[in-house]
Write a structure and sequence with these properties.
Blueprint: H1 2-22, H2 27-39, H3 41-50, H4 56-82, H5 86-107
Length: 129
């Protein structure tokens, strides 16, 4: 059980990590990494965590929209703190990679039964006239 979870995480995270490392040395790898981390990863994490019930078209639109918003704001705030450079962008991508890894670790665990809170139960409201 544990080895299958670890195998699933490694299959996703290892290529992304290697791409992130290659981004420090190759401009082409940096371009691919920028596309992935600017257009996909942040939105994927948020949508798959909070909005699982949406259909695929809605998810893809939110992947793009949220990813662009989050990655550009992260780079902006990092550039205010440490200055704007290629290393600032790669640090932002490393931060997003850590969040992706944490998301994968959390979502590959077996799901437990969750309690459902019913807010509009008939027994809790009493109508008096």
């Amino acid at each position: 059980m544990m080895s299958s979870m670890l195998k699933q995480i490694v299959q996703i995270a290892l290529p992304v990590f290697l791409l992130l490392i290659a981004s420090f040395f190759s401009p082409y790898a940096a371009l691919v990494s920028a596309l992935i981390f600017t257009l996909f990863v942040p939105g994927y994490i948020i949508v798959e965590y909070y909005f699982k019930a949406l259909n695929m078209q809605e998810k893809l639109l939110l992947y793009l929209l949220l990813s662009v918003m989050i990655s550009t704001h992260l780079i902006y705030f990092l550039s205010l703190a440490i200055g704007y450079s290629q290393h600032t962008i790669l640090i932002a991508f490393a931060i997003l990679f850590v969040f992706l890894l944490l998301f994968l670790l959390r979502n590959t665990k077996p799901e437990q039964q969750r309690r459902v809170l019913h807010l509009h139960s008939r027994s809790t409201f009493s109508h008096r006239i």
